[in-house]
Amino acid sequence: MYDVIVVGARCAGSPVGMLLARQGHRVLVVDRSSFPSDAVSTHYIHQAGLLKLREWGLLDEIVAAKTPELKKMHYSYRGIHLNGFAAPVDGLDAVYAPRRRVLDEILVNAARRAGAEVLESFTVTDVVAVEGQVVGIRGREGDGPEREFRATVVVGADGFHSTVAKKVGAELYNVRPAAGFIYYSYYSGLDWGLHHKAGLNEQWFGTWPTNDDLSMLAVICSRAQLKEFRQDVENRFHAVFDDVDPDMGAQLRATNPAACSPTSRPASSTRA
Ligand SMILES: Cc1cc2nc3c(=O)[nH]c(=O)nc-3n(C[C@H](O)[C@H](O)[C@H](O)COP(=O)(O)OP(=O)(O)OC[C@H]3O[C@@H](n4cnc5c(N)ncnc54)[C@H](O)[C@@H]3O)c2cc1C
In this protein, which residues make up the domain named FAD-binding (predicted)? Predict the structure, then answer.
């Protein structure tokens, strides 16, 4: 019997587990993934998030993982250019964009160090309820036998398409259809720094230096462009850079993507 079971062990779940365990609660965190592993997400951590990592004693681990320190940003919106950096917050004068396999592993390890039990590769299939009250979870590791764990509180931190939210019939609010889509990939050999650039044709790109001397490059386009984009992903990806910043587009064509596949998903759906 646990005080708290947390389903999902990434940005939301592991810190919840860590903070509760640090307060002396008996905590189980489960995730169907194993760590380290990537998640579908770009990597920019806003200053408020970095302040939390620092407060928890984890920012040094992000830095120690050779995550590039970013102190300059290049924004442009339809020909208006802004180059500089946000004012430091509480002495924090840089931002970071760690790969999720780096960030999430640091968070999972911190939860473990705090005393939480973390069960990886465990898929929750249902909540256990008694008289309408959730008292635990049910699930299995891989093809293993079904197991059940009980707790006073069950936290659903299982992200998009949350099983916990579905099983308890959580209310959906502020739901909007996706307005656009995103593709991203990793490139070596680019020394661009951090860019957010929007063009005139409902196209946008971003670049973030990340771990392993790679840059993450992402493009976002309006949903109406998805069908055409899918027919020739690599060329359409490059075409967004050509359209928004022709010089960067030319540089990109001379660069090889690192050995990672592009990823796509709707960019602006909101679910809570
Ligand atoms: C394309 C894209 C780009 C983004 N870019 C940024 C960005 O640059 N900066 C930023 O701050 N945010 C960004 N976000 C948002 C960010 O990714 C999410 O806010 C964040 O991942 C949410 O964390 P989470 O822990 O709630 O969920 P997730 O990261 O989705 O983690 C949920 C975990 O739950 C586990 N899980 C799910 N179902 C089960 C189950 N049934 N049983 C057991 N485990 C389960 C999954 O394996 C997963 O590990 C982006 C999102 C997207 C989609």
Answer: 2-172
User: Ligand 1 pocket: which residues have CB below 6 Å?
Assistant: 7-13, 30-33, 39-45, 123-124, 157-160, 163, 182, 265
Of residues 213 and 272, more confidently modeled: 213
What distance in angstroms lies between residue 251's CA and the mean position of ligand 1's atoms?
A: 32
pLDDT-derived band at 255, boundaries 50, 70, 90: confident
Confidence band of 263 (pLDDT split at 50, 70, 90):
low
Kindly provide the b/e burial profile for residues 19-33, where b requires at least 16 CB atoms within 10 angstroms of the residue's own CB: bbbbeebbbbbbbbb
CATH code where residue 12 lies? 3.50.50.60
Q: In whole angstroms, what is the distance from residue 39 CA to residue 191 CA?
A: 24
Residues 12 and 135 in one domain: yes
Q: Please say whether the beta carbons of 176 and 272 come within 8 A.
A: no
